[in-house]
Design a protein that fits this description.
The protein has about 130 residues and is an all-alpha fold. It contains five helices and no strands.
């Protein structure tokens, strides 16, 4: 695999793990509910337990940790001026797509427009 192909493969891995982590933690927190209400009824320990024992939250944190270590690996052989902005921009796009179709969130036209513009910026990076 060429150096450029390996760089873009690593960016794809970073985006996948980062998006997975963001979506899983968001889903977990929606399932858990309002932490203030939970803290009032179960106390701080009960609220902490509800978050830390949620399988989606744990998997989301593991995905985010994997994204971080993938980023460290990528910048060990590729330019940070390419890897960091490309990974962040593509994660923004993939988060919008997954939020719309998996989390059923309202993603308005302004967010879609910004995602398209960000993709244009990533294209210019290459």
């Amino acid at each position: 695999m060429s150096g450029e192909a390996l760089t873009w493969a690593m960016i794809g891995i970073i985006v996948g793990f980062s998006t997975g982590g963001d979506v899983l933690t968001a889903r977990a927190m929606k399932e858990i509910g309002d932490l203030d209400d939970l803290r009032h009824t179960s106390g701080l320990l009960g609220a902490s337990r509800a978050v830390l024992l949620n399988p989606k939250f744990i998997l989301g944190v593991l995905c985010l940790a994997s994204a971080f270590y993938s980023l460290l690996t990528a910048v060990s052989f590729a330019d940070v001026s390419l890897v960091a902005p490309a990974a962040a921009a593509l994660t923004f796009l993939s988060n919008a797509i997954v939020a719309k179709f998996y989390l059923k969130e309202n993603v308005n036209a302004r967010r879609w427009t910004s995602a398209v513009l960000i993709c244009g910026g990533v294209y210019l990076l290459r």
